[in-house]
């Protein structure tokens, strides 16, 4: 029996394809990553089917590339050496919602639109990254360590105990989800994401599909706020904006809190409407700090009042030059509109916000210190200008992590999607800037595509250990080969 016959035997004819036209769709995504067309496409319906697929692929030494939705931005689901694309979008059940422990168990195909809608009806919210695509997989976002908008919860990554299929086909459970009988028996609720013992989920997170396939996972959720009030800090200089960001986080004021340049904020608030966008961008200062105060179930108004007093005291005692407003020029209701946008995925049936401006967008992101953000900005702008890319097309977004212990720094290169020359310029800028940033303290936790080689070369010892671990779990290197340093 050949591979094709074996795959059809596992998933059935209706969930198998080797049609060149359909396979071509999986050979690229919204990034500039170069890839190739896969050999086969399959759509499993259960962990048991995935286990059989992995055993067959391992025996046949054929690559396996998992993807959880049809929306991807970084190239990590684009085949580099052909192989089998395992499309998990059909595994899209919300398996159970545990209100007492505030966690939900979901399959990999559950989208942000589905998740936010289901929990919202019950009065809960899941921690979203910045305006995720409505059709993007929730587990994909968490596995890729996309940073949540709310930095005040101690868990930096809301995903916990999970079921994983290793490359040899073994089914494994992590955290307290590994307790005997879970989830069927009542003995364990799987609420402890860490224990017992070593939490193997950390081998999967950030690994870009090179270690195994997650078939379900537990995700934390929180209460929806009852009352909200949005404040904008207006700054002409990034360095002046970063210092209040630190202090606000240290005092634990607010929920959503981030910095953004005027291009990105104008793009989001006007939803790309050209005339409104240009007008708002010109009216806004170069940098805007967004802070949303929220009152939950207990005494919400008092909590808002207390945090607002703390914010104003901070301004009067430490940052007298900081301009604080509850509105923006030309958009008096900007606060209400923004808080509504930020707590949902980007609206369905609309062009994704990053593609509204010029058609395409390539991101360069890493973890660093917020205080170093002005230095990072100077490096990226200098490299961009050197290569003929205008700074007015460059977006920027800074997201503090866990009370500003660290910061997610993201630069957005907007480009014309059909302009081959501009695309090559952005590829060059991204790689050149990343190499300089590496020497200046930038930590690339997810080095996609062309960034993988310089990042892993910089961390030789870590790379050697990673390769040894990979060899233990995937000795035949079938899981998404060519995507990292192997």
What does this structure look like?
The protein is of the alpha+beta class. The protein folds into 4 domains: 3-87, Uridine Diphospho-n-acetylenolpyruvylglucosamine Reductase, domain 2; 94-223, Uridine Diphospho-n-acetylenolpyruvylglucosamine Reductase, domain 3; 227-342, 2-Layer Sandwich (Alpha-Beta Plaits); 353-446, GMP Synthetase, Chain A, domain 3. Helix content is 34%, strand content 21%. The chain has 15 helices and 17 strands. The chain has helices at residues 3-11, 20-25, 47-60, 112-121, 138-143, 201-204, 238-250, 262-270, 274-283, 300-318, 334-342, 373-386, 420-439, 452-458, 460-473, and strands at residues 16-17, 40-42, 64-67, 84-87, 94-98, 103-106, 124-126, 159-165, 171-173, 213-223, 227-235, 257-261, 287-295, 323-325, 359-368, 394-401, 406-416. The strands form 3 sheets. Strands 14-11-13-12-16-17-15 form a 7-stranded antiparallel β-sheet, sandwiched between helices. Strands 5, 6, 7, 8, 9 and 10 form a 6-stranded antiparallel β-sheet that branches. A 4-stranded mixed β-sheet has the order 1-2-4-3. Helix 1 runs antiparallel to helix 3 (47-60), helix 8 (262-270) packs antiparallel against helix 9 and helix 12 (373-386) packs antiparallel against helix 13. The longest helix has 20 residues, at 420-439. The mean pLDDT is 93.
């Amino acid at each position: 029996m050949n591979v094709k016959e074996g795959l059809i035997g596992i998933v059935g004819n209706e969930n198998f394809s080797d049609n060149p036209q359909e396979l071509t769709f999986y050979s690229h995504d919204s990034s500039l990553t170069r890839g190739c067309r896969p050999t086969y496409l399959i759509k499993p319906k259960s962990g048991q089917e995935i286990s059989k697929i992995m055993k067959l692929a391992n025996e046949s030494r054929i690559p396996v590339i998992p993807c959880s939705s049809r929306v991807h931005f970084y190239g990590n689901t684009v085949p580099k050496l052909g192989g089998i694309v395992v499309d998990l979008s059909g595994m899209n059940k919300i398996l159970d919602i545990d209100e007492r422990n505030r966690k939900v168990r979901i399959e990999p195909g559950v989208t942000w639109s589905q998740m936010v809608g289901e929990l919202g009806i019950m009065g809960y919210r899941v921690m979203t990254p910045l305006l995720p695509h409505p059709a993007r997989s929730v587990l994909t976002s968490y596995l890729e360590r996309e940073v949540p908008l709310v930095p005040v919860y101690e868990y930096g990554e809301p995903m916990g105990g999970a079921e994983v299929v290793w490359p040899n086909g073994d089914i494994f459970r992590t955290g307290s989800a590994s307790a005997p009988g879970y989830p069927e028996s009542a003995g364990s609720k799987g609420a402890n994401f860490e224990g017992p013992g070593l939490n193997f989920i950390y081998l999967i997170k950030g690994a870009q599909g090179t270690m195994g396939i997650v078939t379900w996972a537990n995700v934390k959720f929180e209460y929806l706020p009852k009352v909200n009030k949005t404040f904008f800090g207006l700054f002409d200089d990034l360095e002046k904006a970063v210092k209040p960001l630190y202090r606000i986080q240290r005092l634990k004021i607010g929920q959503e809190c981030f910095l953004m340049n005027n291009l990105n904020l104008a793009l989001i608030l006007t939803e790309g409407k050209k005339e409104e966008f240009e007008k708002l961008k010109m009216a806004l200062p170069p940098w805007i700090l967004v802070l949303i105060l929220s009152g939950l179930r207990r005494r919400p108004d008092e909590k808002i009042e207390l945090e607002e007093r703390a914010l104003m005291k901070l301004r009067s005692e430490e940052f007298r030059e900081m301009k604080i407003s509850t509105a923006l020029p030309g958009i008096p209701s900007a606060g209400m509109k923004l808080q509504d946008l930020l707590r949902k995925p980007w609206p369905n049936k609309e062009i994704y916000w990053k593609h509204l401006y010029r058609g395409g967008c390539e991101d360069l992101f890493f973890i660093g210190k917020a205080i170093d953000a002005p230095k990072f900005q100077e490096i990226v702008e200098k490299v961009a200008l050197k290569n003929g890319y205008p700074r007015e097309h460059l977006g920027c977004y800074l997201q503090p992590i866990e009370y500003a212990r660290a910061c997610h720094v993201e630069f957005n290169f907007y480009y014309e999607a059909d302009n081959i020359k501009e695309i090559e310029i952005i590829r060059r800028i991204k790689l050149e800037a990343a190499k300089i940033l590496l020497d200046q303290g930038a930590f690339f936790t997810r080095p996609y595509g062309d960034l993988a080689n310089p990042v892993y070369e910089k961390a030789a010892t870590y790379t050697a250990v990673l390769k040894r671990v990979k060899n233990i779990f995937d000795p035949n290197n079938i899981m998404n080969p060519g995507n990292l340093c192997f």
